Amino acid sequence: MSNLKVHHIGYLVKKMENAIRSFEALGYELTQRTIYDEYRLVNICFLQKDGYRIELVSPVSDTSVVSGLMKKYKNSPYHICYETEHFETDYQELLTNGFLSIDSPTPAPALEGRKVVFLMSPSLGMIELLQKIPG
Ligand code: NI
Predict the structure, then answer these.
(1) N or C: which end of the chain has fewer CB within 10 A?
(2) Separation of 79 CA from ligand 1 center, angstroms?
(3) Could you say which residues of the chain have pLDDT below 70?
């Protein structure tokens, strides 16, 4: 799985605008404005600093998949996303390595509609796998 590249760190936030202002105060630059993800009922934006990309995720409904996580974790990082050109084979390999799929691959509107899937590891928590479009 050495072909996996860290793409971003996902960060849960209650109030998107306040979170953006606070990250900007730390020197982050907003690289993608807030986009609504209709599959997950969340708002998403991206910031960057020192080569690190941070994804802010804020639930817009109590039925959002991350609303439960928000109650548990409050404002905090909650997943690392890995990008791969071999989405299906790496997805299957992760499953055989003990990762459990917690949803099925769906397009990510905030990431050009590329496929993403979330997986859970009993030993390290949640990760996200993101399809890389070659070229
Ligand atoms: Ni993410």
Answers:
(1) C
(2) 7
(3) 2
